[in-house]
Amino acid sequence: MSSAPLDPQHPRQPLPYLKLLLALVAFGAAWRLTEMQPSALFAAEGRRNMLAFIGGMFPPDLSVDFLQRMLGPLLTTIQLSIAGMVLAILIGLALALPAARTLRFAGVLHEVALRRRRRWLLAVLPYAGARGLLNLLRAVPELVWALIFVRAVGLGAFPGVLAIGVAYGGILGKIYAEIIEGVAPQPLETLQSTGAGKLAVFCYGIVPQALPHAVSYTLYRWECAIRASAVLGFVGAGGIGQEIELSMRMFNFHEVMTLLMMVFGLVAITDLISAAVRRRLR
Amino acid sequence: MSQAPATSQAMSGTTACILRLHLLSKRFGSQQAAVQGITLNVRRGETIAVIGPSGAGKTTLFRMLNLSLPPTSGSIIFAGSPVASLGPKQLRAVRRRIGSIYQQHHLVGRLRVLHNVLSGRLGRWPTWRALLSLVYPLDLGDAAAALRAVGLADKLYERTDHLSGGQQQRVALARVLLQDADLILADEPVASVDPQLADEIVELLVTLGREAGKTLIVSLHHVGLALRYFSRVLGLRDGEITFDCRPDEVTPLMLAELYGGDRVFGGRSRQADHASAAPAMPLPTTCLHFQPPATAT
Amino acid sequence: MGASQAAPSQKFFTSNTAALPPSAPARAWWTWLLALGVAALIWWSFRGVGVDLGMLLGSESRRQMLSYLLDLYPPDLTSATVRSALWGSIETLAISLMGTLLAVLIALLMVGGASRALTTSGVLFTMPGAGRGRRLTLLGLSLLARGILNILRAIPELIWALIFILAVGLGPFAGVLALGVHTGGVLGKLYAETVESLDPQPLEALQATGAGKVAIFLYGMLPQAAPHFLAYGLYRWEVNIRAAAILGFVGAGGLGKQMYVSLSLFHHHQLLTQLLALFVLVTFVDAVSTWLRRRLS
Ligand SMILES: Nc1ncnc2c1ncn2[C@@H]1O[C@H](COP(=O)(O)OP(=O)(O)OP(=O)(O)O)[C@@H](O)[C@H]1O
Ligand SMILES: [Mg+2]
């Protein structure tokens, strides 16, 4: 990029300065808007508060009684993440199938057949609808979904499951569709040329190619879901998050530390599991 | 499933031509046409070799013939019926009667060999059988016999991407055997194997095809093989047929024109090497590795 | 199967069940056990959270949800609400931008210590003149840097926000700090991995010219890694725009704060307006980031 002016193909443009200026203006505006005041970080009072908070977290509360009480919420968090992921996978699959161009109207499976207008429209409409819905589901963060569902169906784990299912369903659906579209087309052409039907081409050609990627990404999302379910508890969706919120409100920072460690432990375990599965899938 | 052979035999009574091409052309975007104005009649049982320099349009032609690519203009008439007018159902039925072996990368690497071979049956199986077979392989005996025919009997349960390039090409061959098509298209089936194996695979393909009375169209970069094993040789260059004759009628001059011209001086290509090397190629007297299926069973 | 029905002369080979292949390698018993285990886990989870199919699909919960969603409609399009939603969006955008910038800064500062390529192995480490003591120091430094990154990453943004609110008070600045610190941990790890997987040859070439460590980093590593650094930064920006909206709920201002108010006070129509604004904002950021990333590659 920096060598651009030397390149005879790209004559020197006056624009870089303009871009720089624009970037600076944007930076200045963002600085003002976010009320940045780095000095506040070093102000005595703030520092004391923060250190008190962080210092208060040590040592973590490892009393047997507390740990026993937290076993339930811990399991709830695991259950919430799994149930939410199952829902997310179902939603993701249901939306990815119409949202994958190569399954509907583009690419090697549609070169010869389906030249007719009406059919083409029939294929494109569900595609557009599914893509729009996926974007909508993805745009709203899971915490906001959780708040909406808490209002809609009441407190408890159910809104948490719905929130993870819906928000992650949107994410998974988009990725699944991309994985399906990214599959090597040559094997599909071969299968089709043997006279195989649509479903057979899907099962013999697309699924084997897409499966490892899809599984691997789903596992990664599961890890995120566990982290998220800790946060969802803050708005009343049960599990460890709710306990963190409670402990914080009671200024029991030792307990907060323990709970955070539990979340890390869970994430680390899922990490191990997904690493093992990925190795086997290769 | 016995319909297809029945119709094909009925057709063979009325016409000796399994395939007719009329002024077939294909143009990608605004480029120069990859295939232009090819008119060709293919009789049942013929074995045709298509030779020509890289970029001549061989792959494009084959993809149109196996109904994967719609022609820009011109018509393809398979077994008496013009394919442009076929509905989706009939399209499948015709595809099932045309077997294809591709240049490369056309197997599903993550499936076991047996599923790739059995996928030759997908045109005939109803969907439920196709799905069931993924879990509980059907027609296993056929798959094993086909693999034995190509000398890979012990690779049945191997994962396909664990095989070498030449072995994968033979798996593709086994799949076509299982498909039992009337017309077999092979696009450079030996591009990625060593000369010895190339010879063996082509001989196997031609022998098996001839014994079963199949029609064969094979594109090759290897002029020696084309002249040795086939009954008819087509020269293709810049999307047009430059010659179409019996192998013994092919002269060095024709080959020089096909591969030569500006190409020889513009940079030596692999194909030019083949062309010049062709006359000196020794003829193998025996085929050691492959047993014809009759002796295998 | 069909071998006996069709005309035998049309077949390549006859199926031979007597010559069946060696039996399939049995799927390992623990594969089935694993499947069973996963199924049990799912069942246990749904039971544990007290969610069943009736709740997911049942008419009662569906009616409840539908009526709530219908209550949201129509969005409040009075100019006051729209204007404040607009301002909130801009503020959220600013938080995400500054947070991501801060994160990139932190990651760049940490990458020197955290990447093995820079400390404990690779060209720079094996440079002559690095004595045993220095090596140990570097090793310790790298472990420390990695530990810090792990902690930054492990604590969710929301918790960081609570901590920083204690330190600097309510407001967007706390949000910027929270995003920056957490994302800094994420990016630091990604950056370190990028640096570790760089092509070592240019680095060795530089070293051979007698360049020092800093020079190698600036002229050999940064140019190679910079596009990846930028791409990761943009990707995290997409994540952070959503996170910035969430941080508003705990007092970091922006769209999130407004949504929190609307939710608490049951201002349904304003909530829908804000949700729409969020949708537009996120879509906009995704599009810009995708566009920039495409231009990078
Ligand atoms: N899908 C496509 N899109 C655009 N152009 C294409 C496409 N497929 C082929 N072409 C062009 O058509 C021409 C003929 O290509 P084709 O693959 O048929 O040649 P070929 O004879 O098979 O060559 P090779 O011996 O190298 O396999 C080439 O110029 C190629 O660039
Ligand atoms: Mg080709």
Could you please describe the fold and organization of this structure?
Chain A has helices at 15-33, 39-42, 44-56, 64-99, 101-104, 117-139, 142-153, 157-182, 185-193, 198-232, 240-249, 253-281. By secondary structure, chain A is mostly helical. Chain A is globular. Chain B has a domain at 102-180. Chain B has helices at 3-14, 58-65, 88-96, 113-118, 127-135, 140-149, 165-179, 195-211, 223-229, 252-259, 262-266, 270-277, 293-296; strands at 17-26, 35-43, 47-51, 73-78, 81-82, 98-101, 183-187, 215-220, 232-237, 240-245. In chain B, the strands form two sheets. Chain B has a six-stranded mixed beta sheet with strand order 6-7-8-3-9-10, with helices on both faces. In chain B, strands 2-1-4-5 form a four-stranded antiparallel beta sheet, with helices on one face. Chain C has a single domain, classed as MetI-like fold (Orthogonal Bundle). Chain C contains eleven helices and no strands. In chain C, helix 4 (79-114) packs parallel to helix 7 (172-196), helix 5 crosses helix 7 (172-196) and helix 8 (200-208) packs antiparallel against helix 9 (213-247). Mean pLDDT of chain C is 81; it is low at 1-10. The chains are: A mainly alpha (282), B alpha/beta (297), C mainly alpha (297). Chains in contact: A-B, A-C, B-C. Chains A and C meet through helix 1, helix 3, helix 4, helix 6 and helix 7 of A and helix 1, helix 3, helix 4, helix 6 and helix 7 of C. The structure holds adenosine-5'-triphosphate and magnesium ion. Adenosine-5'-triphosphate binds next to helix 2 of chain B.
- Major sheet of chain C: size, sense and barrel closure? none
**Beta strand % of chain C:** under 5%
Contiguous uncertain segments of 5+ residues of chain C: 1-10
Distance between the termini of chain A: 38 Å
